[in-house]
Amino acid sequence: MTYQDLANVLYPNIKITVQEIFKKYPPRSLPENAVVSRFAPSPTGFMHIGGFFSALIDRTLAKNSGGVFYLRNEDTDKKREVEGAMEIIFDILNRFEQAPDEYQLLGKKNVGDYGPYIQSQRLEIYHAFAKQLVAEGKAFPCFCKKTEGLEDILKDREERYSESSSNAYFDPCRDITIEEAIKRVQNGEKFAIRLKTPNDGSKRMKFFDIIKGEVELPENARDVILIKDDGIPPYAFAHAIDDTLMGTTVVVRGEEWFTSTPSHIDIFNALGFKPVKYCHTPVICKIDENGNKRKLSKRKDPESNMQYFTEQGFPVVAVVEYLLNLINSGFEPWRAKNPNAHYSEFKFGITDITAGSPLFDFVKLEDVSKNVVARMTAEEVYSNWLAWAEEFNASLANTLKERKDLAIKVCGIGRGGVKPRKDIYKWSMIENLYSYMFSKPQLIDEIDIKANYKEFLTEYAKNFVLPVDKDSWFAGVKEVAEHLGYAVDNKLYKANPDAYKGNVAKACEYIRLALTGKKDSPDLYEIMTILGEEETLNRLKEAGEC
Asked: What pLDDT sits at residue 140?
């Protein structure tokens, strides 16, 4: 009997040949050096920021080169699959402006010519290639059970290999004769398919990593699984086939896959494929409370979940620009030189990706976000704020729609000019930040010299009329302040502060507290203008009587 006989017994229903499969996946017609990249998550939970980090690199490389970025659903781990996870991932990619060119959602048709883009719908393809490898004597059926024979396997490995090749592991089933293997299959025994590795573990493999350059790792000396006993391939086998058929030119993946690369290259070689170019990206880390550097944790760090940024209302562009700066430190100086350009105009290639593990820094993200919001018009801020509220705060959304004119004016506070105010970095904070614009503030109790506070506001409110301009407003404040014994010349005040009740800054603080309930706020005259004369006067009087 031959290996072909064994292959036919293992996969009697697989009639399609690998040659016929390749005809269905012709080479892509793209410009020279165009990158074909893919984001290929497993639908086992939320969209991790590390996954989005890779997807952002994938899409940027493809778009910068006139290539293609596609989404592949690697749903072969059915035990860990979470219902709806892929829909969440697809939604995040679209929300954050990283929509794939080709994809497929469950129950929907392919968008693109290289599908199915869902691995569980490609089992016939994987089985056809596994069948060919068996027919060529490069793979074999393994009948071992996970919980049985472990001690014997370890003992066998120890006896058969020297210390210098202790990483070698030849599965005992590789020595089963063709006849015995066929008999066991015909008897109904479950089997996996393993690669018959040609290596013995005594050498090292050299390969090129796009970020790391020329690297060297111990060669693979294990009979790795190609098809599990449930008929489903693990990542290693499936991605080698899919990336070849779909024309992937660069595989961007996390650092955690780096040490597995030799076994993956072995699979490419066994299949007769040219290995894909690998780009192992660094893992995003953070500094913990003890000052130690660690990976972002799904359990500890809410920012590890991309939905966190959506729920908090961080602007899409801010999150993308922050991550672009983690990918390539050249983005920040580029942004400084091109303040009004869209981030997609920033060009970088594969070799420009950072090699070190970047640190996630909320302060930096907030700074980036403040700059992004500062570049927006009042109408753009309002539109984004309303869109966030409609999804996460229905009551606020109703208020924003009912009082649209006021809300737009609020969103325009401190906006425009050479130095726009930078106090907003996420949509969820605006309600509390400017709550006093929609309702009277709750007056705080920590006002120093309360008698002076009441006295000044009562006097200021007596003849209050909304001034026609800011200079007139300030002149009126100074007039009342001087009349009540406040210094209008700051040099004189600094020279002899005990001679005065305070200075003009203190008088303005009283007005600010009365109107906003805060010691810090945007321009007072602008606030008065938006509130209007009647509301401003009511708040001044009420504060003076408190």
From this structure: 97
CB 25 within 8 A of CB 246: yes
In this structure, which long-range contacts are made by residues 16-23, counting pairs with CB atoms below 8 Å and at least 24 apart in sequence?
Answer: 16/124, 16/128, 17/128, 17/132, 18/128, 18/129, 18/132, 21/125, 21/128, 21/129, 21/245, 22/245
Contacts of range 538-543, beta carbons closer than 8 Å, 24 or more positions apart: 539/440, 539/441, 539/514, 539/515, 540/457, 540/460, 540/461, 540/464, 540/511, 540/514, 540/515, 541/457, 541/458, 541/461, 542/440, 542/514, 543/443, 543/453, 543/454, 543/457, 543/510, 543/513, 543/514
Burial pattern 438-454, b for ≥16 Cβ within 10 A else e, equals eeebeeeeebeeeebbb
pLDDT for 445: 57
Tokens 């020297």 belong to residue: 162
Q: What is the pLDDT of residues 267-313, one digit of tens each?
A: 999 999 999 999 999 899 998 888 889 999 888 899 999 999 999 99
pTM given for the model: 0.88
Alpha helices in 173-251 (DSSP H): 178-186, 235-245
- Residue 452 CA to residue 504 CA, distance in Å, equals 13
Q: How much is the pLDDT for 146?
A: 59
* Low-confidence residues of the chain: pLDDT under 70: 146-168, 443-450
Written as six digits, the tokens of 173 are: 């089933």
Helix (H) or strand (E) holding 72: none
Euclidean distance between CA atoms 329 and 334, whole angstroms: 9
Q: How far is CA 382 from CA 208, 242, 377, 493, in A?
A: 49, 45, 9, 42
Rg (CA), the chain: 33
pLDDT at position 50 is 93
Beta bridge partners of 280: 253
Give the pair of three-digit tokens for residue 155: 């003992």
